[in-house]
Amino acid sequence: MPDSADSYPRREFLARTLVGAPAAALSFLSSKGHAQPSPADDSPFDPWARNALLHKGQVINESVEFVDSLTGRSSRRLTQYRLLNEQPTYHLGACFSPDSRYQIVSTELRDGSTALLRAEVATGELTVLETAPKGWKLGVWNACVVPSLNAIVAIVGNQVKLYDFNTLRERIVLENVPGLHSPTGSCDGHRLFVMKRAAAVSVEGVKTVPAIYCEIDLANGGMREIFRETRSQSNHLVPCPTDPDLLLIDRDLPPKFGGGGDGGRTSRVWILHAKTARLTEIRPNDSNRFQIHSNWSHCGQYVYYHGTSRQHSYPTSPSGHYIGVADREGRVVWERHFPTFFYGHVSAHTQTSAILSDALLTKNLITAIHWKELNAQEVPRIEILACHATNWVPGQASHPHPHMSPDGKWLSYNCGTTAGPLATDRMAPALKDIYGDAVGFAPQRSDVCVVRL
Fold first, then answer.
1. Rounded to whole angstroms, how far apart are CA atoms 172 and 227?
2. Which of 68, 145, 288, 431 is deepest in the core (most CB within 10 A)?
3. What whole-number distance in Å separates Cα of residue 333 and Cα of residue 339?
């Protein structure tokens, strides 16, 4: 490591010490400690390097090893080029192959095209599974792992495709059906679940697109509607890891929809029974029933959730927040209030009854909340797993969305960085072209990292 690297201040957001990285990469650490794009056009470290359109079957390795700045654990940044690199959202079982060898990553290039990649976590080798031109948005909202099939499911245009994790052999499950999103699979491997966009309607004076939940029979490709909302939106569909008929869904009611529902009067999180379309409410003890995020436990017997609180005020914050656990019948098993809230997500430990989070209790750490291990004050044991040190901005690519591998030996997360001064000039036009005038934040890059536990 060059001597100059030690002169940079180690602040809260110092995510990692790069090991074996080029000196150029180290020399452009920002004052917050992120590995940043160089402000010099002729720098060997440029996020737009190797930005040519990817093609199916291409194999690349751009990974960099580093040491987690807090725990000292061996880590690897799987990506370092292009615009947005991200893994699937925090849903249990959505990211890693069943043998924990691979995970999936999506990447977005400067021209707006996207690609779906298979990453070998131990080596950093990336294989391009699929590519899509600008407008198709082949991202993590349209791709997911189906562990029971050792496969990846992705929506490519108007097709639903399956890819074998090991051989990369693909097959079309369904085609010529527009408007599908958020694919996933049942734990028995017999069905895929998707959401379909209904026609836009006006609810309480607000335009909305209610959610339609469907299942696809993998034996014959037949699709049937499971449940249709009339007022609620949804972007989350999480299959139970041990019961093929149970789905965890969000019901985002007007007028705030995903930003607060009906003001917390009605629970956001419900269990949908695929066979009967019966709904089971997951109702927190707190009077604010709009949970922000939820997930299944690794055993499929519990639902994890969290939200902001109306019932508790603390000196350090106007209102605290709650983290809780309910059983399949909606009964609260454990729920605790905490004083200071940091926006984040709830994922699941794959080896024990613990809630993984990329924030909630702290802004820059990935923690495991062991809710069954309480001290005399009924405070759970909180284990620090890694420092993600992401630069939180609007949009999901910078949000860590942590995943633990099925064997419990790997932890993966997204890490967002903001471009340097001159790099901003290069990146801003691409961002505006892709996202339009809605971009109201600093130009952003994101990469995917893995930690060896």
1. 24
2. 145
3. 21
- 3-state SS class at 79: coil
The H or E element that residue 184 is part of is strand 180-185
Instruction: Kindly report the number of other CB atoms within 10 A of residue 176's CB atom.
Output: 7
Which one-letter DSSP state was computed for residue 53?
Answer: P
Q: 403 near 87, Cβ under 8 Å?
A: yes
**H or E stretch covering 200:** none
Q: How far apart are CA 333 and CA 380, in angstroms?
A: 14
Q: Could you tell me the sign of the dihedral formed by the alpha carbons of 305, 309, 313, 315, in that order? A: positive
Give the residue carrying structure tokens 């892709």: 434
Helix extents (H) in 224-351:
none
Distance CA 194, CA 355 (A): 26
In sequence order, the 6+-apart residues with CB closer than 8 A to the CB of 132 are 113, 114, 115, 138, 156, 157
State in Å, rounded, how far the first CA of the chain is from the last one: 24
Q: Walk along the chain (453 residues) and give the pLDDT tens digit of each residue.
A: 333 322 222 222 222 222 222 222 222 222 233 333 222 233 344 555 555 668 999 999 999 999 999 999 999 999 988 888 999 999 999 999 999 999 999 998 878 889 999 999 999 999 999 998 887 778 777 899 999 999 999 999 899 999 999 999 999 999 999 999 999 999 999 999 999 988 888 888 888 899 999 999 998 899 999 999 999 999 899 999 999 999 999 999 999 898 899 999 999 999 999 999 999 999 999 999 999 999 999 999 999 999 999 877 665 556 689 999 999 999 999 999 999 899 999 999 999 999 999 999 999 999 999 999 999 999 999 999 999 999 887 778 889 999 999 999 999 999 998 654 333 344 444 444 433 333 334 557 899 999 999
pTM for this predicted structure:
0.85
Instruction: Give residue limits of the domains in the chain.
Output: 307-387
CA distance 411 to 196: 31
Question: Is 60 within 8 Å of 67 (Cβ atoms)?
Answer: no
| Angle at CA of residue 160, ends 154 and 164, nearest 5° | 55
E-assigned strand segments in 28-125: 59-60, 64-68, 74-77, 84-86, 102-108, 114-120
